[in-house]
Amino acid sequence: MLTQPRSAPRLAIVVPCYNEEDIFSYCLQELKGLLESMVQDATVQADSFLLFVNDGSRDTTWEQITKAVSENRCVQGLKLSRNEGHQSALLAGLEAVNVSVDAVVSIDADLQDDINAIRQMVEAYRAGYDVVYGVRENRQTDTWFKRTSAEGFYRLMASMGIKQVSNHADFRLLSHRALGALLRYSERNAYIRGLVPMVGFASTQVLYTRSARLAGESKYPLRKMLALAMEGITSMTVIPLRLIALLGFGICILSIVTAVYVVIRKFTGNVVYGWSSIVLSIFFMGGVQMLSLGVIGEYIGKIYLETKQRPRFHVENLIKNEETDPQ
Ligand code: UDP
Ligand code: MG
């Protein structure tokens, strides 16, 4: 059941940026154009704005953001004290706009996601939806490897009962109350894609086609992709721990059966024991144990990090255009 249609929101578009100097001006120009046209036809309020979050870039990204803020009344900049990673940068941006907006859209700086979908997202918001997922129609612009690994990952997550919208990255709209709810999840190891569906409220999807990156290179090399996948699994479910217990149980049963078999062979006088079977079983058991310890260790590590309650990020600076936004 949807609530009443809503009036035009004060919208913030949050863009995490890490070493995006090659694409920043294009990104600014495109998003600004879109925002202005949405203001013009009264889809959003006139005081809607863009927030660029500089995630500890080592290039001129922050200088470009500062310049953009001084030249444009609809641009704000948030500087983190160091590189914290995409998810933390995004959370920092969301937290910064939380009090002042009716709705927020998050999008990557490379604009691989179709910005025209934002208009549809706002329309869905106005129709009463609180969460609007940007969902890719296909993955043709991805490499074969990225496509296959992503599909495998979604299937793996689904098999462990984690609700997640397929082919949706962090391109989405959140209403003020959905955003507030999301920010109440105070875990250090936040996997936003897994948390948003847990927030509830009325949600819908907007389909779009994702293009290739225009400039700069992906800030998500295989190492970071694997880390995000690991984060996603271990921060959302304890099923891997259960699987280990199940595996251990299975192996115990197997060893009882083997023991019975060995005893029978012994009494029937057929005792040819090669070292190979022993060595093989030692290796196998060693492998299983190491793997199990590794998975358990991963969770214990998480508990350790969570108990410290360390801050997820530090804001160094929040800049706004003084002329227009004096608060
Ligand atoms: N990003 C970030 N911090 C990081 C890595 C990436 O803020 O440590 C930002 C990056 O600037 C971009 C978004 O996260 O806006 C997604 O990165 P990218 O487009 O490189 O990922 P891909 O599309 O290749 O998965
Ligand atoms: Mg990208």
From TrEMBL:
What EC numbers are recorded for this enzyme? 2.4.1.83
- Gene Ontology terms: cellular component: plasma membrane
Q: Which SUPFAM superfamilies match?
A: Nucleotide-diphospho-sugar transferases
Q: Tell me what topology the record assigns in the membrane.
A: Multi-pass membrane protein
Localisation per UniProt entry: Membrane
> Which residues are in the Glycosyltransferase 2-like domain?
13-179
What's the main place this protein lives?
membrane
Q: Name one GO molecular function term.
A: dolichyl-phosphate beta-D-mannosyltransferase activity
Q: Which CDD domains match?
A: DPM1_like_bac (cd04187)
Q: Which UniProt keywords apply?
A: Glycosyltransferase, Membrane, Transferase, Transmembrane, Transmembrane helix
According to its UniProt record, what is one Pfam family this protein matches? Glycos_transf_2
Membrane-spanning ranges = 243-264, 276-300
Please indicate which superkingdom the organism of origin belongs to.
Answer: Bacteria
Name recorded for this polypeptide: Dolichyl-phosphate beta-D-mannosyltransferase
